[in-house]
Amino acid sequence: MIKETYQDRIFNIVNIALLSLMLAVVLYPMIYVVSASISDPNLVNSGKMWLLPKGITFEGYRRVLQHGELWVGYRNTIFYTLAGTLINLAVTLPCAYALSRRDMLGRNVLTALFAFTMFFSGGLIPTYLVVKNLHLVDTIWVMLLPGATSMWNIVLSRTFFQSNIPHELQEAAVMDGCSNWRLFFAIVLPLSAPIIAVMALFFGVAHWNSFFSALIYLSDRGKYPLQLILREILVQQQVASDMMSNGSDMESMAAQARIAEVVKYAVIIVSTLPIIAVYPFLQRYFVQGIMVGAIKG
Question: How far is residue 30's CA from residue 52's CA, in Å, rounded to a whole number?
Fold first, then answer.
């Protein structure tokens, strides 16, 4: 048993104090948004509600959930997230593994060409023309294929394969007659659960929060993702509030402004709750994945 010194106790106290402060900084906005979404907007705006809910009302959630297209948006976003993440993994992981292989000819040239896309892009108009010429406009595929991978995620995955999959293991498998495809699916992927979970989390969150592609390329409301529907709800509430201010009495205008305020917080909760619910199940792998490339001793 190592005796704790005075310096160790001071160090632990300082660490606990700093971590507690960081926890408070992270938790307070989350608790505030949840409380504000079910509190009287008058109390929120006046500063009387600063942590726990006051004057509980579910008007914001009622306004959001009664929107008929909300559930269509949920369905579409779940599909885009699941299908898009599978496509992302199917493209990113084989590419990263191939670039991690020492025996791959021209891998440095390919890596440089891929890395070029991290710093330079064609811009919105050329991208739109490409998507249009591929006949992807106003189809579900425009939400899945143009962002099929990310060079940054390829680099992370390649680093994981290089530092966690021994080259000797690959050589032994090849000597036993294992093909490259069987090596990848039977040996490499089962040993790569951390990076698969991290990539799934990264891509999944990106798909869940995506709305700009739908705003640019989709005109069929039946294909709108959740974020675009929620954006419209916010815009509608704001427009209604502005119209009240131009031609209604002060009481009606104030009431509409209060509704718009509480709807804003309800929209935040509705849009982020599924991701918050999924994250704890991937946290263990996420912690392992962020250590990719770290020095091992």
Answer: 11
104: left (phi over 0), alpha (psi -120 to 50) or beta: beta
pTM of the complete model = 0.81
- Work out the end-to-end distance of the chain between its first and last CA atoms, rounded to an integer number of angstroms: 24
Q: Which two tokens stand for residue 84?
A: 């898009």
Q: Please spell the DSSP secondary structure of 48-65, one letter per residue.
A: --SSS--S---HHHHHHH
Summarised one tens digit per residue, pLDDT across range 67-83 is 778 889 889 999 999 99
Q: Tokens at residue 208, please?
A: 């869940």
| E runs forming strands in 24-105 | none
Q: Quote the CA–CA distance of 226 and 173 in Å, as a whole number.
A: 46
Report how far Cα 98 is from the mean position of its chain's Cα atoms: 26
The residues, ordered by sequence, that sit 6+ positions from 65 with a Cβ below 8 Å of its Cβ are 270
Integer Cα distance of 272 and 198 in angstroms:
18
| Rounded Cα distance, 142 and 126, in Å | 15
The pair of structure tokens assigned to 77 is: 């976003």
Residue type, 263: V
**Residues in contact with 37: Cβ distance below 8 Å, sequence separation at least 6, in sequence order:** 60, 61, 262, 265, 266, 268, 269
What CA–CA distance (Å, rounded) separates 61 from 277?
Answer: 18
